[in-house]
Amino acid sequence: AIAKPAIAQSSPEIKWRLTSSFPKSLDTLWGGAETFVKAVAEATDNKFQIQPFAAGEIVPGLAAADAVTNGTVEMCQTASYYYVGKDPTFALGSAIPFGLNTRMQNSWMYQHGGSKLLDDFYAKFKYIALPAGNTTCQMGGWFRKEIKDVADLQGLKFRIAGLAGRVLQKLGVVPQQLAGGDIYPALEKGTIDAAEWVGPYDDEKLGFQKVAPYYYYPGWWEGGTVIHNFINIDKWNALPKAYQQILRSASDTANVSMTAKYDADNPGAVRRLVAAGAQLRPFPQTVLDACFKASNEVYAEISASNPEFKKIYDNIVAFRSDEYLWWQVAEYAFDSYMIRARTRS
Amino acid sequence: AIAKPAIAQSSPEIKWRLTSSFPKSLDTLWGGAETFVKAVAEATDNKFQIQPFAAGEIVPGLAAADAVTNGTVEMCQTASYYYVGKDPTFALGSAIPFGLNTRMQNSWMYQHGGSKLLDDFYAKFKYIALPAGNTTCQMGGWFRKEIKDVADLQGLKFRIAGLAGRVLQKLGVVPQQLAGGDIYPALEKGTIDAAEWVGPYDDEKLGFQKVAPYYYYPGWWEGGTVIHNFINIDKWNALPKAYQQILRSASDTANVSMTAKYDADNPGAVRRLVAAGAQLRPFPQTVLDACFKASNEVYAEISASNPEFKKIYDNIVAFRSDEYLWWQVAEYAFDSYMIRARTRS
Asked: In total, how many domains does chain A have?
């Protein structure tokens, strides 16, 4: 018998590093990276090993994408909207105010050309992006005082980033940038008035209900926030085609399992938070209307000077309109009935 | 250099056959099988090849699972509820009246132990089940006359199968069994009064709006119907662990992409159907309430004599209650606002 070079070449031993934008304490988000690297290792008999690093271990969380551009690491797990400072187009890859819900995000990326549009944009940063998770619809955050009308937003110091911060600025909010660990003391001292994080299960770990009990919904700026694997394009192109497919399907595994985990873990968390003093509040209709109007103004401003943003944004908005035309028929009617039936029984 | 038997053993050349319960004309459902086998072939450099066969090519569509039990084929793509004639527990694997929506199905199976419960049941039929698609919430079907109250169900000859047929029988409906191709002429002649199929994109191919224009929603018996890959347990156990993982992730790829395709294709179809004469109608609240009550009666009857059904059903119902407690907060509030905003703008 002689060696089989074809087999040896198609299944080479490869070691990569993945840097994540998320800490290990967020087992939802970080758990997605673990699920992904495990699926890749098992599918290749441990020949393709990707070592995952949490935010800050080798690269700061918000520098993850830069590390992929530079080739410091082969790939990262991140949220595209962290990089809106470079270009607001990045927001379109994860979530925008009044954007798509979780399933619509997948449908747009996988079946409506969304991933292609995003990859065309990401090319200048030297990576491709595989959908690899979703936080599901987030909450609107924790507030020390109730928000009863648009006037209550005036001067509100709200820990919120990205495009949503820019939208809320139009309504008098003063957006604050704070790392996760600094939010609780700032809310406690009253240095800030409100803070948004993710949803019940992730928020519960930070105990905000003790210092800012009004827990608003929905997080209209995060209807279904996509988590991506960004992969350096040169490293991607150098892989055997089989390994590329294994990365794609392992990302799909991470995507479906992260969404499933949020859906499984959030109900218990919301129950416990309410028992611990959180007071659930829907944003008033007047506030949502003002935010929707301000969002459209922001989109018009950006689109006027950024044709790449405009191209992808217009595609999303047309898709969103079609989606909700249909969504309100079977899906929404089913959920509506089930919600009513639950409270009756 | 000498041969590397470890590598040769871990990537053997394997050929399997997959028989589907679906015809090639349904590119949504059949497309899931194509997506799956392509992902497996690409991930293994064509060493693991699964040849897919449409319903009837080698095995009749509704005998797909039996062919896996018997080892005639290694695996099939099917909907578990096709086999309720053997045991109503099969319905719990795909969809039951007033059950879970699409994301909840995934969450239950992947993260709440649902797949484990189902596999324990499927073991006696010698297969395991990997989730591999979802039709999303289906429509309630096509009716020759409007359904304005529960009394309109009396004597209604409705092409509908499974548990939903049994539920509707309690309200006077006479369930009819007809293959897909026989439905149109039966509706045209008035031999039957109504028929359910899937949702807009799949239904459009059959042209029912010409002979039964009232298109009801939601399909309360199919809130998010799961499509599974059933795999013969002996064939599964004989696979290298790497190939097992590749089958798992390729099934996840099929799952997320089928859902995404339904979400992408249904909006255009519902538009075209309405333009062609379909008249969308929500089931009246009184009808839904009567069907919900009748469903719970059916569940109680089956549970009284079938402990395996009861065990899994009780697990689903407890999960459903938790899910909708949370769902009505962020997800539903977000969708509600987006639906209202769409019609305003």
From this structure: 2
